[in-house]
Amino acid sequence: MKxxxxxxxxxxxxxxxxxxVMLHRNGTHNPGVLxxxxxxxxxxxxxxxxxxxxxxxxxxKTTTANMVNDILIENGFDPVSNRxxxxxxxxxxxxxxxxxxxxxxxxxxxxxxxLDERSSRLIYPHVHxxxxxVTNLFRDSFKRNxxxxxxxxxxxQHIPASTKLVLNGDDLVSARLAPNNDRVYFGIEPLEHExxxxxxxxxxMPLCPYCGAPMQYEFRRYxxxxxxxxxxxxxxxxxxxxxxxxxxxxxxxxxxxxxxTDLKMxxxxxxxxxxxxxxxxxxxxxxxxxxxxxxxxxxxILKSRYIDQVIGGKRVISTLAKGQNPVAxxxxxxxxxxxxxxxxxxxxxxxxGDAETTSENIAWLYDTDFEFLVDDSxxxxxxxxLRRLDHQVRLLVGGADPSRITCIPExxxxxxxxxxxxxxxxxxxxxVYTAYKAxxxxxxxxxxxxxxxxx
Length: 455
What we know:
Blueprint: H1 4-22, H2 30-38, H3 42-45, E1 51-56, H4 61-74, E2 80-81, H5 89-97, E3 110-114, H6 120-123, E4 131-134, H7 148-158, E5 164-168, E6 183-188, E7 215-222, E8 225-230, E9 242-248, E10 251-256, E11 259-264, H8 272-285, H9 289-296, E12 306-311, E13 314-320, H10 326-338, E14 343-348, H11 352-355, E15 378-384, H12 388-397, E16 405-408, H13 411-414, E17 425-430, H14 435-454
Parallel strand pairs: 1-3, 1-4, 2-3, 4-5, 5-6, 6-9, 13-17, 14-15, 14-17, 15-16
Antiparallel strand pairs: 7-8, 9-10, 10-11, 12-13
């Protein structure tokens, strides 16, 4: 039986949410915080939807969660989700409150939750996902998530025993989570013409986590992502239940069960794992390959994270390069160097959210493969924002030609320094908190390119 405090918390949170909507404020976190202040065990007392889908991991969880939501809606489901809000405890509580009516009864039977991996110790004791997708585990912000094994330990200790896991079989860190839980694995098989030797600075699985012997890699796609086995014990990469077998001409071939399905590639090539993970998760949920293929044809990556357009005869790509996340930035840098043609790169990757409360730790720059930008096809690199000189120093340490580097204080002004006649493709790289600056820069660049085309 629910307590009086529970109902007071429920009514307070719902009224708070309505007030925030009336004030045109984003009420995704505070209503849940209020509910838990009034009733500390609010989440424990709360009735939960029949099916809870959780999506967590270092990189790709927001993009993947949005894909999953869109595909479910396309197939007639009505999920409640936190796609526009917080993925920590307060935001999760707010989202779950939205599944209840004023009597505290569940009126929605499906919820999709993007879950912050470090918050699992606070969330999973009260919220038991039916299915939990873990996209990957990498090094992240030094001040929050630090090393991948640190986050692994937190997740491993708190994932509920009843939760079925959908894990990245190419990631030997996250693939080891909760070994007694029911699970399936997704991954990407070696692709035609793919370089199977990683040149990344960091590699977090050189030794077996069980016996300490060296790991032998059949191939290493990047960092510790690949297929490997221990040279002493029986630890190694698991067999894949869902596997991408080919990526070519904007299409992706994926083995789902005993058949290979042709799917549209959504986003850039480094989004392939996100799409594969979404397909594996939704297959376990119960969608068929036919349903998945039809829905994926209509998918688009969230415009705030990836925009690929042609303006005035130039290709302009604006993409998220997550600040203080060395793996995310390295993947973007690698994609840039592999993109054909002559390129200019504008760096706008200051973590302005972090700057509001503290000083940014720049050590992550030296875990990031800036060397990938030291390529003959990259004609110009423009460093902008507060950390522009730190980015310049990192590029010089990586061997960049000083004549190819330009430093501009304001992000919006950076695009005015691009030598348009010298390049075919322009990359605008922004952090989560500098997306609005990238939009301003894109508008200025568009005006320059259109004016040049008319001249």
